[in-house]
Amino acid sequence: MFKKILKIVSIILLVLLIGLYTLFTIFTAPKSDEAILKAYEKSNIQPNLTHERYKDFLYRKISIQNDTVLPTLVFVHGTIGSLNDFSKYMADSLLQSKFNMIAYDRIGYNYEDKNSVQESIAFENEMLLDLIKELPKEKVVLVGYSYGGPIALSVKEKLKKIILLAPAVHSTVEPMPWMLNFYKWKITRWLVPKVWKQASKEKISHREDLKKFESNWNITPNKVVSIHGTSDWIVPYENSKMLEEQFDEEQFNLVDLDKGNHGLVWSNFDFIKEQLLKYAD
């Protein structure tokens, strides 16, 4: 009887694990164009979703063009991430009235992307500069989240503002979660969903790549704001504290989110929206 019960329990647990894995894979996979646009069904202004080319790469860009006089928020997502991370901001009526807005999928994170992540802040910098080349730079506000933080901060052209959200900018405080071993170990790599393989590659190489930039973050003509949760363990708060030490106080402003975590883009939407609105004029 005990063996029968154990067998039944084992089967139930296995089914639950397979179900959770399937849901996790579906939930975190890049969304189709149709799924992306569903987030804007009630939006006052309908966005324009386009497929762009940079060098030999195709990527998606979503944009809301309200008025050419307005400044433009350009959102740069992290690892793992997509242009969909910022849909709540781009669909917000007040933000729409104050800004034009752009978000895009970085290479390796596009829907059914056949390309691999480039594992290079320098490459991401060049791609971002290509994306904003037609915009008046004095009206561009870059918003870089997580891995998108160093990409935004690496831009040395004079802009309206650079806003960092939990930026991963210093190698010495770059954690390597144990779960990365599932990607590192060949015997378990097959279990890792495709987009998470891309994120794992980028995460593993990020620490070394940061060393090429981290001592020179303050060599920029731009004023920088960093918003960071004090309880963030994925990208520790120390990242922003170390940035604060590099910059003069008139050029850098650190905004603490007391007990905030790495999901601040979603969990602290109202607060971040309020911060963005400060740079609407």
The domain count comes to: 2
Strand order of the largest sheet: 1-2-4-3-5-6-7-8
Percent in strands: 15-25%
CATH topology of the largest domain: Rossmann fold
> What is the rounded distance between the termini?
73 Å
**Helical content class:** 25-40%
CATH superfamily of the largest domain: Alpha/Beta hydrolase fold, catalytic domain
The largest β sheet comes out as:
8 strands, mixed
Which runs of at least 5 residues are low in confidence (pLDDT < 50)?
A: none
Total strands: 8
- Topology pattern, helix = H, strand = E: HHEEEHHEHEHEHHHEHEHH
In terms of structural class, how would the helical and strand content be classed? alpha/beta
Q: How does CATH name the architecture of the largest domain?
A: 3-Layer(aba) Sandwich
Shape: globular
Protein name: Pimeloyl-ACP methyl ester carboxylesterase
Pfam families: Abhydrolase_1
Domain AB hydrolase-1: 71-197
